[in-house]
């Protein structure tokens, strides 16, 4: 605990660890590998966030399509189904054509 508050090693064990950490920090190869690993982590987190957002958008679109399908089955107009679901008129028309087949 003393090392954390003062920065001074109180034992041989803490002094050894401090020496190893200091050497690692000063090693350019280690620094580069560490930064590469950190950049990989940031990139992976960004990709996961983007994939999650894409999945959410796909889920919302799927729910809108299902709602439009039910509206069309209940004889609601294409225009109203598009208005209430947020889908384009073209998407609802295409859905209506698919349902007719």
Structure, described:
With 101 residues, the protein is an all-alpha fold. It has one domain (2-100). 85% of the residues lie in helices and 0% in strands. The protein has five helices and no strands. Helix 3 (28-73) packs antiparallel against helix 4, helix 3 crosses helix 5 and helix 4 (78-85) crosses helix 5. It is rod-shaped and about 80 Å long. The chain starts with a helix and ends with a helix. 8% of the residues are buried.
Sheet with the most strands? none
Report the count of strand segments: 0
Rounded to the nearest angstrom, the radius of gyration is 29 Å
Secondary structural class: mainly alpha
Query: What is the H-and-E element order?
Result: HHHHH
Number of domains: 1
User: Helix amount, in percent?
Assistant: over 70%
What is the CA–CA distance across the termini? 74 Å
Assess the beta-strand content as a share of residues: under 5%
Based on Cα principal axes, name the global outline.
rod-shaped
Question: What are the key terms here?
Answer:
101 residues, mainly alpha, rod-shaped
Question: Can you lay out the helices and strands and say which pair or pack?
Answer:
Blueprint: H1 2-6, H2 12-26, H3 28-73, H4 78-85, H5 89-100
Helix pairs in contact: 3-4, 3-5, 4-5
Produce a short descriptive summary.
This protein has one domain (2-100). Helices cover 85% and strands 0% of the residues.
């Amino acid at each position: 605990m003393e090392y954390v508050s003062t920065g001074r090693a109180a034992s041989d064990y803490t002094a050894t660890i401090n020496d190893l950490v200091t050497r690692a920090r000063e090693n350019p190869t280690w620094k580069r590998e560490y930064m590469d690993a950190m950049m990989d982590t940031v990139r992976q987190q960004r990709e996961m966030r983007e994939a999650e957002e894409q999945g959410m958008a796909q889920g919302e679109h799927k729910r809108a399509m299902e709602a439009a399908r039910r509206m069309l089955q209940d004889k609601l107009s294409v225009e109203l189904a598009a208005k209430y679901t947020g889908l384009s008129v073209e998407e609802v028309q295409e859905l209506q054509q698919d349902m007719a087949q």
